[in-house]
Description:
The chain contains 1 helix and 9 strands; from the N terminus they run H-E-E-E-E-E-E-E-E-E. By secondary structure, the protein is mostly beta strands.
Amino acid sequence: MYRKLTKEEQRVILHKGTEAPFSGEFENFFETGIYHCKQCNQALYDSASKFHSGCGWASFDDCLQGAITEQLDADGRRIEITCAKCGGHLGHIFAGEGFTPKNIRHCVNSIAITFEKSSPQ
């Protein structure tokens, strides 16, 4: 069952929009847990893969296995990332920037994800 989305969430997730840089709740958020697709609740990213890039959006250098689909963006220049379960737009992938040893950045709209804090062990 999909979550009911606000108009702004629909603009980003369903219509491939982008939230304004530095406006998302997860850009400077670094608690331990799992990030999920806001529309279908599919687990997408572990907080261990999140890093601060200064780009204005949440940044990850890896996703959970099988959680993300990559496809060439309509502009033919960027790689769009979508939720593998529901197809919701998450953002784009950029390579070669040197932020982490993996040299990849999943640039994710905070409005497209939710966060579930991990329980202390």
